Amino acid sequence: MLGARLPLALHGGGGLAVPDVGRIAVFHPAEGADLGALDQRRVHIIQPSKPMYDAFDAAGYGCGVACEDRYVASIVCLPRAKAEAYALIAQAAAVTDGPVIVDGQKTDGADAVLKALRKRGDVSGPINKAHGKLYWMNTAPDLTDWAAGPALTEGGFWTAPGVFSADGVDVASAMLADALPQKLGKTVVDLGAGWGFLSAHILTRDAVDAVHLVEANHMALECAKRNVTDPRARYHWADATTWAAQDRVDAVVMNPPFHTGRAADPALGRAFIAAAARMLAPSGSLWMVANRHLPYEDSLSDHFVKIVDLGGDARFKLVHALRPKKKRS
Asked: At a CB cut-off of 8 Å and minimum separation 6, what does 156 contact?
């Protein structure tokens, strides 16, 4: 927990010193991260996740999805993906004139990153607390070899570190794409569109007038814009669980995420199901793939009149849900 370690480093004898004037970048903090040890007016949150971005914005922080000019200090909150973690540290080092601080849980690779940084220069700390570490480089070395951004995969799609299925098409999405019928309706929503694989597949149908790609991860959506160039595509950087279509849609297609941290969180998939039901026309359909062990059946029955099991395999289940139920008053 950043809020447990940062005060110790700054005020508890840890030896970390941050300049008294100038902006401080905080890369990818989790929602609810305690930044009370810093002057809020000086903090610039860099957060690609729309729900987390909105939470920090509502709390009064300056927010963006990319760096703005230079900073007197920066804090990198380690993500789970190793390539993304290294890329964020390289990005911070390139735009920071003072200390580059790294904070993360041991389960997110904090020890491995510390070991790698020590091979590149002097590292102070670490501050060990709450199953994590905080450490810093007062003068960061050139880490451009760690930098990484959107790249073209062997399969011909653009992806980026930290984006779901960054190495290529995931098996579940490919399975759903193969199960989709030729006739989906004129207006389709790809809920949690990622880098756009399902939308690209849907847009091979001439009868489709529009596909709305709804995705919370800004970088994933930027990749989708490269992968899906059809003029019928509409892009929305938004929380899929709260986004609302302007008009009712004919079909929703989705491979919903089921992690908010390391543990599976079925509530996230249930929220996707509820959102799909809200935006569908009375005769609309949901086409969905999910891990077979996740308990979505009750939620599907709560929101749809008819549920059709399309099979799948031992790992994934394919579902077609028809006719959303009217919202109870």
From this structure: none
pLDDT (tens digit, 0 to 9) for every residue of the chain, 329 residues total? 888 999 999 998 889 999 999 999 999 999 889 999 999 999 999 999 999 999 999 999 999 999 999 999 999 999 999 999 999 999 999 999 999 999 999 999 999 999 999 999 999 999 999 999 999 999 999 999 999 999 998 889 999 999 999 999 999 999 999 999 999 999 999 999 999 999 999 999 999 999 999 999 999 999 999 999 999 999 999 999 999 999 999 999 999 987 555 556 789 999 999 999 999 999 999 999 999 999 999 999 999 999 999 999 999 999 999 999 986 53
329 located within any domain: no
User: Are residues 155 and 123 located together in one domain of the fold?
Assistant: no
The model carries a pTM of 0.94
Do 173 and 165 contact (CB within 8 A), yes or no?
A: yes
Domain boundary among 146, 161, 192: 146
Indicate if 123 and 187 belong to the same structural domain.
no
C-alpha distances (whole Å) from 20 to each of 2, 16, 34, 42, 72 are 20, 12, 20, 10, 9
